[in-house]
Specification:
The chain has 241 residues and is an alpha/beta fold. The chain is built from 11 helices and 8 strands.
Length: 241
């Protein structure tokens, strides 16, 4: 049975595993769902996954694979053997690659098959970039919808998209939507162009969020984590006391 996405993944944007684990412990965040991205995984390798698992964390391994189908299948087979919970590919890799990714996860899975997400358009991209740099002459929202419907055909479990496009994904596919670019009102955008609040994410149909700097750089990261999670779940908490 497929596991469900957790409501909030804290992005471990740290240079070393020791830094990440120390931060989690100091701010009473041990055991929360986390996202391990390229920076940390390429530095530490599989050891950081094992260390986090020992501390009870569910792990979204955010490597955004994008390569020829057979390479992605073999890579996913190896990643699945580490007992990760969520992993992703770029939807731009095409249908055959997405199917191969799913197959690799099934081949390498131990206790459960990891959730497979397809990245649509990065939140650091905008319409101008699509047209001038990638030569994609379609509205960004149409591109996200197209990638999402393609992913839905390939056995992918969900997509990574901005909050702005989550509503489109939920309307046209059966996929889960995980949304980065989350900021509390007044928060900085940093290098992301399409951002939103946790409340807006919920309203647009997001199933889960990824938050990094807004938590990491807060004066009290533990409190900020809980505040963002509560803001996202507030409606369901009121409905189901």
């Amino acid at each position: 049975m497929l596991k469900k996405l957790k409501p909030l993944y804290f992005a471990l944007d740290f240079q070393t595993g020791d830094e990440a684990l120390d931060f989690l412990e100091r701010h009473h965040l041990t055991g929360i769902p986390v996202k391990v991205g390229m920076e940390l995984f390429y530095k530490e390798g599989p050891s950081i996954i094992h260390r986090l698992k020992e501390n009870g964390h569910e792990i979204f391994l955010d490597l955004k694979l994008h390569d020829i189908p057979e390479t992605v299948r073999r890579a996913m087979r190896g990643l699945a053997s580490m007992n990760i919970d969520v992993v992703n590919v770029h939807a731009q890799g095409g249908e055959e690659m997405m199917r191969s990714a799913k197959l690799g996860l099934e081949e390498g899975a131990q206790d459960h098959v990891p959730i497979l997400l397809a990245v649509t358009i990065l939140t650091s991209s905008d319409q101008k970039m699509l047209e001038e740099e990638l030569l994609i002459d379609h509205p960004l929202t149409d591109v996200v919808k197209h990638y999402g419907t393609r992913a839905d055909k390939c056995g992918v479990d969900g997509v990574v998209c901005s909050v702005e496009e989550a509503e489109i994904i939920k309307k046209h596919t059966a996929l889960a939507a995980l949304t980065p670019g989350i900021r509390l009102p007044g928060g900085e955008k940093h290098d992301q162009k399409r951002v939103a609040t946790p409340e807006k994410a919920r309203e647009n149909g997001s199933d889960a969020m990824v938050v990094g700097r807004a938590i990491r750089d807060a004066e009290k990261p533990g409190e900020m984590y809980r505040k963002i999670k509560e803001a996202f779940q507030h409606e369901s908490i009121n409905t189901h006391p």
